[in-house]
Amino acid sequence: MAEAFVGGALLGAAFGEAFTLLHDTVKSVGSKALMSNSIVKNLASNLNDLASVVEEIRQLSEDLDLPEEETKSLIEKMNKAKELISEWSKFPWWKRLFKGNHGKELTSLNEEIERFCKVVMPAQSRRDGLKLLKEFSIQTEKIRGLSCSVPRPPDFTVGLDVPLKELKTLLMKEEESLLLLTAAGGCGKTTLVQMLGHDEEIKGIFGEGNIFYVTISKTPNLKVTVQRLFHHVGVQVPEFQSDEDAINHLQELPKQVGSNPMLLILDDVWPGSEPLLEKFKFHMPKSKILVTTRTAFPRFSFTYNLKPLNAEDAMALFRYSASLKDGTSCIPDEDIEKVMKGCGGFPLALEVIGGSLRGQPAEVQLSRVRKWTNNRFIYNPDLLVRLQSSLEFSDDEVTLKECFMDLGSFPEDQRIPVPALIDMWAELYEPDEDGINAIANLHELTTRNLANLVRTSKDASKINNYYNEDFVTQHDLLRELAMYESSQGPEGQRQRLIMDISGDTLPNWCTEQDQQFINAHLLSISTDESFLSSWCNIQAPKVEVLVLNFQTKTYSLPKFVDTMDKLKAFGSCTIQVSDALPNLMEINIDYCNDLVELPTGLCEVILLKKLSITNCHKLSTLPKGIGMLVNLEVLRLRSCTDLSELPDSIRSLHKLRILDISDCLSIKHLPKHIERAKLWEPIKQDLTNLEVKVAEKNINLSWLLKS
What is the pLDDT of residues 503-534, one digit of tens each? Predict the structure, then answer.
């Protein structure tokens, strides 16, 4: 048989055949015979446990890198053991003892088979994981947020146990399939439906895999929503050409989840979305749909109204948010009661006001509380006005306030990548090469309940300053507050200008003159799918950071980008950047689904210090002349799953400090000078500032599951 071994396929097949013959022989001796000898009994048990693993080795043998000599030796031993046990089984029971060398051979064989399987299959499991990860990312490359799983509710909640019970009772009524959960913004609707989605009784009824959660927001995208639902159940669907096309597919969704009913939670649905709800209700008649909204919709009468917290629960949440212990607060009870009245039982207001007191000296706490209680705006019926009156930063927290307002520059209900914030704030405020200042500000905003820093990377505790997989979220009311704070004064004089374009309707202020001058340092532009790139003529010479969020398939950058002489941080790459943006220092491109290659002209932007291209799954090559970027310090290529190689010229990037190619699953070979971490030492003689960090090997799909 030894002469027949040719390649991994035959080797794996021969191993599987020898194992099967041995296994069949052992099984054929019968249970009574096994009981008479512990060695054979242990071997039989082990063979039973490993049978499925060996079958995988047989099926995957073409892709396995089997150790040839060890495999051949093991096959020969299994063949010998088969003959030995076959002869042994014919003996009378009182002679069925393995002594001397035969007993040792079988014991050794037992251990060797187990060790072989443990060595081969983990390596294959990693390859399978990488293959699965790549296939999964290719299927989902057009969907920014894949997961429709219900997010975990906050660790601390009060006053929602009774509403949860009542909501469950209404939801299970057979006569209605769609239930509205209504309440003003900041009242706790999202927290309540998150609790419901993780309730054991609800999971028992629907099944954990049949509970879907989607945030709809002010400008819903039906095609993306339906695509997300299908991807969540592992079904690949073509890109929908229209809303009608998406709806036609929607009725097939319940067939993909088995016999259990579905629960679809649509969070943050705005007025005007009633037709969308009608379509979901009509095409999913046997499913339950739970909708959260700030206002009731007349055509849907089945409604549950969530009330604000009562005084006792409001006090508990405020004390928790402010870290005030009973009997130890320096704030008089009558002042706290005024704060409670001003918050009106709204959890968001209680958390924000309480968070601003957390960790502050007693004098600061007392001073802030007295300012709020003397401010007539805290009793305004509009919660946004109350929040604005409670937003207070000290004189040495000017940068922190600016960072809070910057968060409003990103689209509603989207996760904001931490690396983008680090790069942006380093340009706008102070140098921050390792991101420490930015992370400190994000932690402070999180402590004050003004934002939420989510750390997803397992390597975060092991590799200092590794934030590439982390992101920031923000309550939509707080985003509105950040935008409100940024919108004070005439548009042309604002330091931060946000353009939210619907269709081809541009803001009035930018069309009033042939050339509109703006003073902003940060410009944020968002468009919807119907925008046709009809730009106005803006003069923006002071813009340092440009944030772009284009949803249309075809687009071009506005010509006024040419006038941005101070632009340093940029979010796209669709023009001849070397000519238009010669002073550009940073480019950050994330989830650009149609980016296949970078323009060669990019290599002529010699002042570029940071180039971050992440989650661009179609990017296959980098310009060969990338080594011309002699000032490049950071090159992030994380999760560019089709990127196949790095150019040899990367050796010329003498200032390079960070090279991130994590989850670049198609890179099979690195330039010969940088193949392994231990071989980086010679190249570090040229790249003197380079720090090499090896992340723990981990097949993790969480980086794809972002909304």
Answer: 778 888 887 777 788 999 999 988 877 777 67
Give 629-679 pLDDT, tens digit per residue: 999 998 989 888 889 889 988 888 989 888 888 888 888 777 766 655 455
pLDDT digits (tens, 9 = 90+) for 66-114: 667 777 888 888 888 888 887 777 766 555 555 445 666 777 777 777 6
In a domain, 536, yes or no: no
Q: How confident is the model at residue 123 (pLDDT cuts 50, 70, 90)?
A: very low
- Name the strand (E) or helix (H) holding 409: none
| Domain finish residue from 365, 390, 415 | 390
Q: Tell me the C-alpha distance between 450 and 477, whole Å.
A: 10
Domain final position from 334, 360, 390:
390
Tell me the residue range of the domain where 378 lies: 311-390
CB-based contacts of 537, cutoff 8 Å, min separation 6? 514, 515, 516, 559, 560
- Long-range CB contacts (< 8 A, 24+ apart) of 663-672? 663/133, 663/638, 663/639, 663/703, 664/637, 664/638, 664/639, 664/640, 665/130, 665/133, 665/134, 665/137, 665/641, 666/134, 666/620, 666/641, 666/642, 667/643, 668/644, 669/645, 670/645, 670/646, 671/646, 671/647
- CATH classification at residue 203: 3.40.50.300
- Which of 9-23, 183-197, 489-503 has the highest average model confidence (pLDDT)? 183-197
The CB-based long-range contact list for 343-346 (8 Å cut-off, 24+ gap) reads 343/314, 343/318, 343/378, 343/386, 344/308, 344/383, 344/386, 345/307, 345/308, 345/309, 345/310, 345/311, 345/313, 345/314, 346/184, 346/186, 346/187, 346/308, 346/309, 346/383, 346/386
Shared domain check, 320 and 300 = no
